[in-house]
């Protein structure tokens, strides 16, 4: 491998169900390695706001109530990867979602001699995830987070931080909805796991431990695949 290829900006993919900690870990990797997290939603909003050609195409589709095509998303991603802040590399979150998108991404990266350095799957225990997510609630006054099992306020129903008694729960943070989301995630992601495993790019990490432990494991993976 030539030094020119080795210095190409890294491209990492984070795979994991809702609540697995992708956002938290992506922020840690951004800070440690100078990478940029890119999510499909953020890419679309930024392209529309900037008025790029791909952004205009996406805006027209969304205004008509349609789904933005893979081709438009790839074009938006192409524009974004060319921006200066992506010089050290990116973390893709939420894309690709299908093997068709994964193949299109490979073609896009091939245009600049880049590749997927690693598709990292944050492995979780489904039953534990249902408990973790469905037990969450927050203080309506200051936003402090609590949990039925792991972090209850010292005085029941009263926020430790601001003293408010207004506690709220997200409507979709219930056991049935969380279980359904996990099932959908596994069905959707299984082909991607197989795809990247077949390319030798798949990495897995236990995402049920302490945040710092997971961060350390991810940092080692990133160091190994980009050195």
Explained architecture:
With 227 residues, the protein is of the alpha/beta class. The chain has nine helices and eight strands. The protein has helices spanning 3-6, 22-33, 40-50, 53-63, 70-81, 99-110, 126-134, 175-198, 211-226; strands at residues 10-15, 36-39, 89-93, 118-123, 136-139, 145-147, 167-168, 202-206. A five-stranded parallel β-sheet has the order 2-3-1-4-8, with helices on both faces. It has a three-stranded antiparallel β-sheet with strand order 6-5-7. β5 and β6 (145-147) form a beta hairpin. α2 crosses α9 (211-226), α5 (70-81) packs parallel to α6 (99-110) and α7 crosses α8 (175-198). The chain is globular and about 60 Å long. It starts with a helix and ends with a helix. Residues 1-6 have low confidence and may be disordered.
Distance between the termini: 12 Å
What is the helix tally? 9
Computed over alpha carbons, the radius of gyration is 20 Å
The percent of residues in helical segments reads 40-55%
The overall strand count is: 8
How do the strands line up in the largest sheet? 2-3-1-4-8
Quickly give the structural class.
alpha/beta
């Amino acid at each position: 491998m030539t030094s020119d290829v080795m210095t190409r900006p890294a491209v990492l993919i984070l795979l994991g169900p809702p609540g697995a900690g992708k956002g938290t870990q992506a922020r840690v990797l951004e800070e440690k390695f100078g990478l940029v997290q890119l999510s499909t939603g953020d890419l679309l909003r930024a392209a529309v706001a900037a008025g790029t050609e791909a952004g205009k195409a996406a805006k027209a589709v969304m205004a008509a109530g349609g789904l933005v095509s893979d081709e438009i998303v790839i074009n938006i991603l192409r524009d974004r990867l060319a921006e200066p802040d992506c010089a050290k590399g990116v973390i893709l979150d939420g894309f690709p979602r299908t093997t068709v998108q994964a193949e299109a991404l490979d073609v896009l990266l091939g245009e600049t001699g880049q590749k997927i350095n690693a598709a990292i799957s944050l492995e979780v225990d489904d039953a534990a995830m249902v408990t973790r997510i469905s037990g969450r609630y927050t203080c309506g006054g200051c936003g402090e987070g609590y949990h039925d099992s792991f972090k209850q306020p010292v005085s029941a129903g009263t926020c430790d931080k601001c003293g408010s008694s207004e506690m709220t729960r997200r409507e979709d943070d219930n056991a049935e909805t969380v279980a359904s989301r996990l099932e959908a995630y596994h069905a959707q992601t299984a082909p991607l796991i197989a795809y990247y495993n077949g390319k030798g790019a798949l990495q897995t990490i236990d995402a049920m431990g302490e945040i710092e432990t997971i961060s350390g494991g991810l940092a080692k993976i990133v160091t190994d695949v980009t050195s």
